[in-house]
Design brief:
The protein is about 50% helix and about 25% strand. β3 (about 90-95) and β4 form a beta hairpin. It is an alpha+beta fold. It folds into two domains: about 1-65; about 70-115, SH3 type barrels (Roll). It has a five-stranded antiparallel β-sheet with strand order 4-3-2-1-5. α1 (about 1-15) runs antiparallel to α3. The protein is built from four helices and five strands.
C-alpha cells in the first residue's frame, strides 16, 4: 500500500515539475499561479494521504481510551496483556497476573481486546 502511495506521489511530483515552455512563459510574463501549482498539488496529496488518516487514527485512539472501563482486556504498547482493575483520570491500574497489578498511563494502552478478537484468534483443532 505504501509503495502505491509513493508511486502516485512520484508521478504527481514528476508531472507537475516537468520543464515546459508554458511555465517558462508564465513565469516571465508574471503568471504566478502556475508557479504555485506544484506546491498546491503536493500539499493536497500530503493532506489526503498522510495528515487526514493520522488525525482520524488519533481521534479513534482517544475515543478508545475514554471508553475504558473495569474488566476490559487490554494490550499495552509494550506488548503486556492485562485486565483493567480501575480507571482514573490519566492512570489505569491493570492486573497482569494473580496478585500483580501495575499502573499505566492511558496513552500507553494500544488495544482493547474484544470477544470478537478472541474468537478470531482461536485456531480450530484438526480432527483425526
Amino acid at each position: 500500500m505504501k509503495s502505491l502511495f509513493s508511486l502516485v506521489a512520484f508521478l504527481l511530483v514528476s508531472i507537475s515539475l516537468m520543464p515546459s515552455n508554458v511555465y517558462a512563459q508564465e513565469a516571465a510574463g508574471g503568471g504566478s499561479f502556475g508557479a504555485f501549482m506544484p506546491l498546491i498539488l503536493i500539499f493536497v496529496f500530503f493532506y489526503l494521504f498522510l495528515l487526514r488518516p493520522q488525525q482520524k487514527k488519533a481521534k479513534e485512539h482517544q475515543q478508545l481510551l475514554n471508553s475504558l472501563k473495569k474488566d476490559d482486556e487490554i494490550i499495552t504498547a509494550g506488548g503486556i496483556y492485562g485486565t483493567v482493575v480501575s480507571v482514573k483520570e490519566s492512570i489505569v491500574e491493570v492486573k497482569i497476573a494473580n496478585g500483580v497489578n501495575i499502573k499505566l498511563s492511558k496513552p500507553s494502552i494500544s488495544t482493547v481486546i474484544t470477544k470478537q478478537d478472541d474468537e478470531a484468534v482461536k485456531v480450530p483443532e484438526i480432527i483425526k
